[in-house]
Amino acid sequence: MGQVDAVIAQCLSSEVALIDQIAHYIVHAGGKRMRPKLVLLFANALGFDGAARFDLAAVVEFIHTATLLHDDVVDESSLRRGKPTANALFGNAASVLVGDFLYSRAFQMMVSVNSMRVLDVLAEATNVIAEGEVLQLMNMHDPDITVESYLRVIRFKTAKLFEASARLGAVLANSTPEIEEACATYGRALGTAFQLIDDVLDYEGDAQELGKNIGDDLREGKTTLPLLIAMERGSAEQRALLRHAIEHGELEKLHEIVDIVRATGALESTREAARAEAQHASDSLKLLPRNRWTESLLEFAIRSVERSS
Fold it and tell me: By C-alpha distance, which of 93, 90, 89, 32 is closest to 64?
């Protein structure tokens, strides 16, 4: 990861001072670097040790960072990873444009790998992520979306880049289509599990540890799985309260809403769904060689669901 960070630092540079300032702020704001780690872990697990793995690890981090910049503008977020968002500090216009810069820089970098398959994987991923963003926008403030619609947004918006990151390691190693699909399955399931836990933490996490405001999803009108389960299991009065809060992004009764979500067992049920996805990810590794890299991937899956931030 030190070598990946070196690539990131080198490729972030721009003659435009504001781009340098905002890009460095968001990239170095303390993220988990999960997607770059997947590129490295799968490449190493499958025997590829070329420098291209560092470049592609940086590429997926740039793509992820671009989506964060755009997300925070769309969601009107003020806090991420415990720090003010870029849009809160520099304004919406600058954040959107620097997000565009990171996207374009990512595509410059992926071209240098000289692989049409790499381009295919990452071009599809960025397109699907954009579709996921629009799907989520369409679902805002809608208490009647189905679990299937909710999961579709997760698989498009969040899990797709996890999937692409894992797949890239197999592509670099010239793996068989079967191995490549196993890697992609791991990434997709891990990304889904990760987002499910994020949705749990929006109702039970600690704001300081989590790095964002508790109840942000509700304020933004996002109908996540904990709310869907709580509405299914709650009383008529509880359902009415939840529906009103989703439709209006209302946080006045956040404590009551959190109590309902907890009392209906919605948080634990969502955690169980995340554990099932993590197990699916672990099972997909059976086709890969057993080594310290695949052992790390197994541990990665477990840690993704047993976390508090």
Answer: 32
